[in-house]
């Protein structure tokens, strides 16, 4: 099936030692990465990994040129899979899109059929992109925390890096589930925003310059952490008996200078969250995002931008100049 030429935001290799050069190119479908399913992209999310790729940091993208965007929503144009008929609304995230193969920052995307998830009816294309990899990570964190016994009756849940995309959605989901949420943020101006998402309290990060105690007063029943490093170690020391923490970020550093004492004396659990999970789990959690885990305040935690604003918006993410989730509209 032929399609017209279309626009894509592609990263091109820069001069040796320099960041890649991002620009809008006019392409045909034949210039996309290989795949048996063609999707007309409606929206694509802006993620920290996309921002790192644009800046040439972290060795995120190795082969150029590359269309960025690690998640997208849209409608099927055609597919080798009869379970994906033309017009089917879908979401795609992970599997290396936007990194190892072309991603969502284009009017069309071509991927493998077994990477494509039909959208539950209750989730719009816009909200699917707002959720995207971030919303899935938030849902996956809570899924495994509840699997380990976390319930609203056990006490407060701390969400660190609270203005980030994953954290903002996590606050919304937790509050809808009946949890008492404490949001931790280094942005004092974000207090009203975080309370509007459902946070019962907003606190600043602790002073981590001095030596840290291996065990502190027990406060948190659960922790959803996007920061890592010393902040996660500090929070673990304040988990209550049988408390559980889910960790998926390293904005505060990849090292974890923690003590084993909370694990031994309080039986706390630290869960590593890898959002590139198998498709059966993805299907189950997207159904939860349409029902039990459905956020109620996505309009408050998200904004829609136009493709022309994409490079500047990605750059702002690295300067801590963004809040919540941004999605770019392609159709």
Short description:
InterPro entries: Acrylyl-CoA_reductase_AcuI, ADH-like_C, ADH-like_N, ER, GroES-like_sf, NAD(P)-bd_dom_sf, Zn-ADH-like_protein. By secondary structure, the chain is α/β, with parallel strands linked by helices.
Key structural traits:
single chain, 331 residues, alpha/beta, seven-stranded mixed sheet, six-stranded parallel sheet, 8 helices, 16 strands, 25% strand, globular
What does this structure look like?
The protein is α/β, with parallel strands linked by helices and about 325 residues long. The chain is built from eight helices and 16 strands. It is globular. InterPro entries: Acrylyl-CoA_reductase_AcuI, ADH-like_C, ADH-like_N, ER, GroES-like_sf, NAD(P)-bd_dom_sf, Zn-ADH-like_protein. It comes from Achromobacter marplatensis. This is YhdH/YhfP family quinone oxidoreductase.
């Amino acid at each position: 099936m032929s399609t017209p030429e279309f626009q894509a935001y592609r990263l091109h290799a820069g001069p040796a030692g320099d960041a890649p050069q991002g620009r809008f190119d006019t392409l045909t479908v034949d210039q996309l990465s290989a795949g048996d399913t063609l999707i007309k992209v409606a929206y694509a999310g802006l993620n920290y990994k996309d921002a790192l790729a644009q800046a040439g940091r972290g060795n995120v993208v190795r082969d150029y040129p590359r269309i960025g965007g690690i998640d997208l929503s849209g409608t099927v144009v055609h597919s080798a899979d009869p379970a994906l008929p033309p017009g089917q609304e879908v979401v795609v995230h992970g599997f290396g899109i936007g990194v190892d193969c072309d991603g969502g920052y284009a009017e069309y995307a071509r991927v493998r059929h077994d990477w494509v998830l039909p959208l539950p009816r209750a989730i719009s294309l816009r909200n699917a992109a707002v959720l995207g990899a971030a919303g899935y990570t938030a849902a996956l964190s809570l899924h495994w925390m509840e699997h380990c016994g976390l319930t609203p009756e056990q006490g407060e849940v701390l969400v660190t890096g609270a203005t980030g995309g994953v954290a903002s959605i996590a606050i919304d989901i937790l509050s809808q589930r009946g949890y008492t949420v404490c949001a931790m943020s280094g942005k004092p101006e974000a207090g009203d925003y975080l309370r509007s998402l459902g946070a019962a309290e907003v606190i600043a990060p602790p002073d981590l310059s001095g030596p840290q105690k291996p065990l502190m007063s027990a406060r948190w029943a659960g922790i959803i952490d996007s920061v890592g490093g010393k902040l996660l170690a500090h929070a673990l020391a304040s988990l209550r008996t049988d408390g559980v923490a889910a960790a998926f970020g390293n904005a505060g550093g990849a090292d974890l200078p923690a003590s084993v004492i909370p694990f031994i004396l309080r039986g706390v659990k630290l869960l590593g969250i890898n959002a590139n999970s198998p498709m059966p789990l993805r299907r189950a959690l997207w159904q939860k995002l349409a029902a039990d885990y459905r956020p109620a305040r996505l309009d408050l935690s998200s904004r829609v931008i136009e493709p022309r604003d994409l490079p500047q918006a990605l750059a702002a993410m690295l300067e801590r100049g963004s809040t919540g989730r941004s999605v770019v509209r392609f159709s």
